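Supplementary Data S3. Sequence and structure tokens for construct A.
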Amino acid sequence: MKLNLSKVLSLDITRAGKWTVYYVLIGIIAGLGAIAFYFLCQIGTHVFLDLMAGYRPPSPAGEHSLFLPTNSFFNRYILLLVPALGGILSGILVYTFAPEAEGHGTDAAIDAYHNKAGFIRGRVPIIKTIASAITLTSGGSGGREGPIAQIGAGFGSFLGTILKLSERERRIMMAAGIGAGVGSIFRAPLAGALFAAEVLYRDPEFEYEVIIPSGIASVVAYCLFCLVFGWGTLFESPYFTFQNPLELGPYLVLAFVLSATGALYVKSFYGITRSFKKLRIPKHFKPAIGGLCTGVIGYFLPQTLSFGYGFAQQALNNELPLLFLLALAIGKIFTTSFSIGSGGSGGVFGPSIVIGGAMGGAVGRLFHGIMPGVVMEPGAFVVVGMAGFFTSVSNTPISTIIMVSEMTNSYHLLLPSLLVCSVAYLVSKRWTIYEKQVKSRIDSPAHKGDFFVDILQEFRVKDLIKRVKKVQVLPESMPFSEFKGFFSTTQQHYFPVMDHRERFIGIFSSNDIRSVLFSQEIEDLVVMRDIGTSDIITTTVSDDLNSVLQKFTQKNIDSLPVVEEDDPHKLIGMLSRRDVIAFYNERIQEMKSRSVLSK
């Protein structure tokens, strides 16, 4: 016994070690990808915005430029045209080599998880990285999480493919790559792991199998990134605290404002996306037109171009006026819609942080002017606004709260963040910026078979006891000649056999009597005890329906005897396979009906 236990432990340790190595490898590649992408973004910003247009947007406290500023003078006309230049370069690159790299990469990874068995072409992350760097650093509005998520997801998919893992295992490794990419580039490893598990669904569900692998990969990627670019958070936030319950009133107003702004963001994003898809011109040139539209907005509102994280930092420090914040939020919605919706490459989380922070700052400033004794720190509304806005457009309340807390180091605002994110989620359930999200695990092709088992395990035989049919039992001493008369008048297919004490001792089916049915010379000699088998497969009222179906398949039988829990010789009735399947289908219809009503 001890030897067997040690063998089991040894196998478990070996298996755990093997998978840990895989997740660490994913974390290393995601971390290196984040480093490379960050460096590319620094180069692109230096060339396109600084050198060509003389535009030097501020940086968040946790980031510093790798290059000294140039002596170029600010030129609005060049700034108007630079996003179009980035759009044409990005469009040619994407639509020539990897058309699936267009748009925001997280949505493509979600689609791969649900519908493509976790498979991503090897070239996609590379093209996505370069194209996104060009789009974003030439003034296009977008986020860094999309390309980094695809780098990690792409390597996880590649590793799962070359190791010939199952589809389920490849999906998990791909999702671990998403978590590692997001956790490293935003310096939020815990949130990265939770985000990868939560972003897959519109309902508040987690892909629980993904959390631990994503956690391991995210920690490794985060450490690698910080070893190169320094430790600390992306934003530096003042020491905000929540101390006055009356402040929940303005926070509740903020939740509804963010939900309305989120609706505008999603509607404009996909409205512009559909408009560009209808354009009858080569796809290669569509991002250039989107870039030109972005440039026109940027001509008047330069703060809406590129990443915009520095302005979110200034909002945290309460350095921006109300009208500037409103212009930043609304303008950023449209520059992001044109930059990414036209086929440009980038993420949508980054702009959401800036939009939400700006709108939160505007609401905070407004209430600070109305009730300064209650709302004492408008900057706190920036933090909560970041979390609430992305929740309203992504249906990821839990991971978003953690992510914004990690990014800003503002853990004392968890209570108002929870309120705002919960309300924003409930109000905004009808729309999402991630179109490839599915409603829940029941709707995911990745869990088609799993869900069948889950539902069957949830119910037991007692839940369909009304479908357990009473049948005619036969005494063990009944001659076959007498049984023939009974058989000719019944529709029954399975025949329980009872002994002289009314104990259930055997059973046979109509198929089992074929050999005797036409042998008249022995029908007076054969009795029911001779035909019925004593090797009986039975079920009880406490058995779950999954185990019942497995019993049906053991001997390919269509009906099972249901016996008493404490006495297997006491027959209750017969349960048919058809009734179990019908019960399952009814439960599925009920769940789908509830799902439709809840929308």
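Construct B, processed identically:
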Amino acid sequence: MADIHSILKKYWGYNNFRPLQQDIIEAVLAKKDVLALLPTGGGKSVCFQVPVMAMEGICIVVSPLIALIKDQVENLTNKGIPALAVYSGMHFMEVKNTLQNAAFGNYKFLYVSPERLETELFKEFLPAIKPCLIAVDEAHCISQWGYDFRPPYLRIANLREELPGVPVIALTASATKEVQEDIMQKLAFGKEGLQFKQSFERPNLSYSIFSPESKETKLQEILANVPGSSIVYCKSRKQTQQVAELLKLRGINADYYHAGLHNDERTQKQESWVKNETRVMVCTNAFGMGIDKPDVRTVIHYNVPDCLENYYQEAGRAGRDGKRAYAVLLYQPKETTELLNQAAIRYPLPDDIKIIYTALMNHLQVAAGGGEGESFDFDIATFGKNFNLDIFKVTYGIQALAREDILSYNEIFFKPSTVMFIASKTDMAELEKTKPQLEPVIKALLRSYEGIYDFVVSIYESTLARFLKMDTGKTIAALKELHRYGIISYQPPSDKPQLFLQKNRMYSDDFKIDDRQVKERRRLYEQRVQAMTGYIGNTSTCREAILAAYFAAPTQKNCGICDNCINNHLTSLSEAEFTQIETTIYNLLEAGAMDINMLVKSLYGTKQKDSWQVILFLQAEEKLHQTAEGLVEKRKNGQG
């Protein structure tokens, strides 16, 4: 068994583990079931990837998001660790080849979307795959009491029955005590199962909340005061574009991102932001999952999130490099009222869901008793318009159908090109005589893709072009020509949203939704909204402590740097003490800007905590300014 520290150094480049990581890894190596509750940016992946590298066999990783799966596989591959992925939208032969590689190849990780777990093909290969560990990422999705319940996650318990003795590690950043207990129960943890909870303490991250008259003005003010990379979360696609345009007009380098953009456009925007070519990304919550960018200085919520789980995960993307960072929430009082009123829209009644389901099946032209396993390009706006249905009701109706394990809807999706031969060998031979320039493409397809005569297979035109030593454009033109002549059925790639049917279309009389569950989920939604509004309305308790209590994480001292801690501490400083520290700061800055840490150290005789409180307060009051280089200087209109 390889030493876990040498593995960490070799593949991740770190000399030491973060708090709790080694304890979790040792529990996994001892074949214990483990629930790991680690904050966003707390290094969850290392907790299962390092021990697997020290074990014989492959790890099955269950993950809910295709974008996240692809990102993780790419990251492992870049480290020289062989990894595979199986998810919805892949065709039969592509899935079969991947599972064969997992069973008989030298691979260490197989990432699987939950709906793939109970397919006959997966079950067929499972005994040969012989996993050493099952890792359940975003494990809160398994709990029906969680904010992001996914019915396919319930299949993981069946997977355990097929693999007795194989331990499970469940990982999440955001689960209440009730959800934590539900995760362990749903995953059939053994009596010796262990729970690890990391402190929610982020000593470099300052949480604050503002209710400004103008959000636009406050946003610009924050970005002017805190230089560096930033994420601004908005509630709608339209708003992301509007806010980004506003910032650009004010001379701030900003762009927008949402799931409705084409795949190539999303990739380009994301890469530009990661490389700091774009400073501010204004986005919906489709952005951020799986992105490893440690130097984000501010995460600003332009609207109130619907729960603390989402808020904590998104805010936690700031300051992963350990340097000072800010999580800011902007709100107006009416927003909290609107959130509570959303319950009826977000949890539609069974009759409304049935109307949406019937319209969906008619729109997709799926016959009763058919459709299981099929994937469709799906434009939700066009569907709503064609059937005269409210777009919000449609969105939440589809989510309700997904919770019932009837279908799944993926907005961020890339569907590769597909090819299948449909002509006889005689017809092919005739074409090769009249169109000899197409013969190399036919031969390349037959040699490169097993089963292409019997099944639809996914192809990548650039890979085929390299094999042929042809220009990619010419290769695509040849494929289209073969399609026109009826030799192959060729479908170009699609990055449109996909709707995947997990069950055959139900007959009208057989359609049922569990009304009791709908009501219970609505009650829990209202409970989460009340926790969110309580967090906003609390102006005295440490923000970090509120979050820790909500997630039943270990208690810790107050953070000392959130808005509530600063205001509480400033009231405990006498006016004379505050003025003395403020005057000393201004005197030190008379000679010019200083490094913020050096400024704190230069305040001899003053507690560091007091120094930080006053500096942060003066920054908030726009009396001090932090430059792009991290230096602090007096503002021209500053007092002192």
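The first helix runs from residue 4 to 12. The chain has a mean pLDDT of 88.
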